[in-house]
Design brief:
314 residues, mainly alpha, Glutathione S-transferase Yfyf (Class Pi), Chain A, domain 2, four-stranded mixed beta sheet
Length: 314
């Protein structure tokens, strides 16, 4: 049997592969030193560094609404734009927002203004100017919880049901690093394919998918019978990212995601919500032009300012 019981379909059945044939052995030095030049060449390698803080001075733009979001349509960014669009659809006018595109590949997250909102230099980051003094909120799970409490929405009032929703919200925040920083990095982005690393994290991702599939066997939504911020947190990563193949070069065949029937049902149901469809478009810079709304300042922008409309105007 191959390491951890996970293997690619093209592995010969009569030849057992060693655990690490695709990378040379590495002995860590006594003290790690950052190789500023000549480091690993991967998708975001030019923005990785072992220190925090701003690299350049740049103020953040500010629009007309109290809520100012600075983000990109990664799974973490999409969580928050889905929440904001769901709040507006539910009639919470105070949830109107401006969403500004942060291009992480170009290092926008290291501008002084962004670092002032999120010292960790990760999207999404939110400023709420309806509070005095203005309130910054960073980390996607914290933003979801902050908005749920501010508008008293998408978080059950019953203590038991609320706790269950928070259980799953924090499950996502704790589990997804294995999906993104683990499986996604080594399967799709790493400059070399390391069998041990891919096997290790494929095993964990499939376990997580099974956790969700078993939960959804007897529940319409993640936290029970109510649609909550737990669904909004989990869907962009495990529903759209894995079951729809939107992340990491579409790993659906490799992970055999069609086996998770209950998760498939839930993924489709959440994806058909109008607010979810709109939330996916905000700050998106990839995919069909009609699905990209780089900046969002008004509900009408979905009809007039997607990239296909902007391109048609020249």
């Amino acid at each position: 049997m191959l390491a951890f019981g996970i293997h690619s379909a093209n592995v010969s059945s009569d030849k057992r592969e060693p655990d690490m044939t695709d990378t040379s052995e590495y002995t860590p030095p006594e003290v790690w030193v950052w190789e500023k030049e000549g480091g690993p060449n991967w998708r975001y390698g030019n923005t990785n560094r072992p220190i925090a803080g701003a690299t350049h001075d740049k103020e953040l733009p500010r629009g007309k609404h109290p809520l100012q979001l600075y983000s990109l349509a990664t799974p973490n960014g999409v969580k928050v734009t889905i929440m904001l669009e769901e709040l507006l659809a539910a009639g919470h006018r105070g949830a109107e927002y401006d969403a500004w595109l942060i291009r992480i590949g170009e290092g926008d997250q290291f501008g002084s203004g962004f670092v002032g909102v999120n010292p960790n230099s990760k999207i999404p980051a939110l400023m709420d100017y309806s509070e005095q003094p203005p309130q910054r909120v960073f980390e996607s799970g914290a933003i979801l919880l902050y908005l749920a409490e501010k508008f008293d929405a998408f978080l059950p009032k019953d203590r038991g049901k609320r706790t269950e929703a928070l259980n799953w919200l924090f499950w996502q925040m704790g589990s997804t690093p294995y999906l993104g920083g683990g499986f996604g990095h080594f399967y799709a982005y790493a400059p070399v394919k390391i069998k041990y690393a891919i096997d290790r994290f494929a095993m964990e991702v499939k376990r997580q998918l099974d956790v969700l599939d078993r939960r959804l066997a007897d529940n319409q939504f993640i936290a029970g019978d109510e649609y909550t911020i737990a669904d909004m947190a989990i869907w962009p990563w495990y529903g759209n990212g894995m079951l729809n193949g939107a992340s990491y070069n579409d790993p659906r065949k490799f992970l055999q995601t069609h086996d998770y029937k209950n998760l498939t049902r839930w993924t489709k149901e959440i994806g058909e919500r109008p607010a979810v469809k709109r939330g996916r478009m905000v700050n998106r810079v990839s995919g069909p032009p009609e699905g990209q709304l780089h900046d969002r300042h008004d509900a009408s922008d979905f009809e007039t300012k997607t990239q296909d409309k902007i391109g048609a105007r020249g």
